Amino acid sequence: MATDRLTDRWPSRWPVQLVPKTRWARQQPTYREASPAVIEGAVKRASTRASGNWFVFAASRSVTSSTPLGADVGGIELVAWRREDGSLVVGPGACPHLGAPLALAKVDCGTLVCRWHGLRVGSGTGRTGWDELPSYDDGVLCWVRLDQLGGETPTDVPPVPERPAGPALDAVAVLTGACEPVDIVANRLDPWHGAWFHPYSFSDLEVVSAPTEIHVAEADDKFLVKVTFRLGGPFGVPVLAEFTCPGPRTVVMRIVEGEGLGSVVETHATPLSPAADGTPRTAVIEATVAASERPGFQLARSAGRLLRPAMKWTAGRLWRDDLAYAERRYQLRSRGL
Ligand code: FES
Ligand SMILES: [Fe+2]
Fold first, then answer.
1. Which ligand has the minimum distance to the alpha carbon of residue 322?
2. Roughly how many angstroms between the first and final C-alpha of the chain, as a whole number?
3. Which residues form the Rieske domain (predicted)?
4. Where are the domains of the chain?
5. Dist. CA 35–CA 192, nearest whole Å
6. How far apart are CA 296 and CA 291, in angstroms?
7. Fewest beta carbons less than 10 Å away: which of 83, 179, 319, 325?
8. Closest Cα to atom 4 of ligand 1
9. Does residue 312 or residue 69 have the better pLDDT?
10. How far is the CA of 197 from the centre of ligand 2 (A)?
11. pLDDT at position 261, please?
């Protein structure tokens, strides 16, 4: 076959490789290694990590100084905007007077003016009965600290995962699933489904190591995965990636070898208010922070505005399938299966 002949001659050090053609049903099955006990053990250990009561609620880019952004975290209505100096403000989303939605208020001189009767909140005087909540903008994502919802010991700053040190390109995708945060985490902690469930994005997937013991130190609690990211047609980029959980609702995939070394995909699962029928809902807020040493990457970075929709589209496509997995997991659990 022509592709096979080309594969023989393709320089193995080039970042883009030719993906050998394999029929989907002819891949090596992974169900033997994908032990439910190993996945469940990793999910349980993740749930014990501290969050300091911090929740990711939006992409930094989506919070502006011109229009307030409404958000919902675990049924708590929030509003967020930026002061004139660009700093983030987050607080209750209902006006303390008669409850108007502050997401529909006007931003004026860095404060919010309620549309119903003109109460001004966020000026820092604290005389309105509206109190700002602890918040944090890490440059890619916005976090809010909700102590009652989290129920843990609060911390001053959120556990922001380590990101690429040099110049990077970031994109944030947001989707909603009918499940709990734990179902999103469990999906990400099953790396074995990659090439089977997402053959359009991954091939030649091999889980090199997985934490098989029940008690594992946090530093060793990782999955190492060899995988080729498909670029379309016969081309792909082989990398070694690790999956870790730095918090109870966060899974980080980091490229530890190959093109884009140090790049991360952070998946944050944030609880929302339940649907009208009581079904839980969870937001998947996924940040891709891509880095590369290559000179062309600088160009790609400046073309970020063009590339960002493509990065979001790729994440969105994967998550449509992954949400079906997570929602199914929730349904089975709620039926006691
Ligand atoms: S409801 Fe906001 S000022 Fe009256
Ligand atoms: Fe997936």
1. 2
2. 47
3. 54-144
4. 14-50+160-334, 54-150
5. 10
6. 11
7. 83
8. 117
9. 69
10. 7
11. 86
pLDDT(81) > 60 = yes
pLDDT reading at 2 higher than 60: no
**With 90 as the cut, is the pLDDT of residue 277 above it?**
yes
What integer pLDDT is reported at residue 168 of this predicted model?
84
Ligand closest in space to the Cα of 116:
1
Alpha helices in 176-273 (DSSP H): 181-188, 194-197
The DSSP secondary structure of 142-186, one letter per residue, reads EEEE-HHHH-S---SS--PPP--SS-EEEEEEEEEESS-HHHHHH
> Best mutation site among 79, 97, 112 for ligand 1, i.e. most ligand atoms within 8 A of its Cβ?
97
Phi, psi of 293 (to 5 degrees): -80, -15
d(CA 107, CA 149): 28
- Per-residue model confidence as pLDDT tens digits over 174-183: 999 999 999 9
Q: Report the CATH number of the 54-150 domain.
A: 2.102.10.10
CATH dotted code for 14-50+160-334: 3.30.530.20
Is residue 50 within 8 Å of residue 153, measured between CB atoms? yes
